[in-house]
Model the fold of this input.
Amino acid sequence: MNFAPLPTVTVAEVPADGLMLDVREADEWQAGHVESALHVPMSGFVARFGEVTEAAEDGRRIYVMCRSGGRSAQVTAYLVQQGIDAVNIDGGMFAWEAAGRPMVTDDGSPAIVA
Done:
């Protein structure tokens, strides 16, 4: 059986106005996240799938991230199977932070990758 390679992009390829989907858990999100990202933890992803499809109903590409790229790869594969244009962000939040891309917290404290 041959599987298509998982669509993947580098942090540098993510446009500033891209639709980001962060699938990390709440404690990771609170430590630091991309300001405009949609937060749907992988643990509750199936139950909240409608929020994701609604956000992408205009056919926009979804850029999926987690801490390092493993969980987001699983979610990306699922979205692609559903016919949604989704790509995994290689290296996740670790790569995002290393590239100096902006991160925020909800309480204004310094953002970190936890």
About this structure: Residues 32 and 113 are 6 Å apart (CA to CA). Strands lie at 8-9, 19-22, 38-39, 62-65, 86-89.
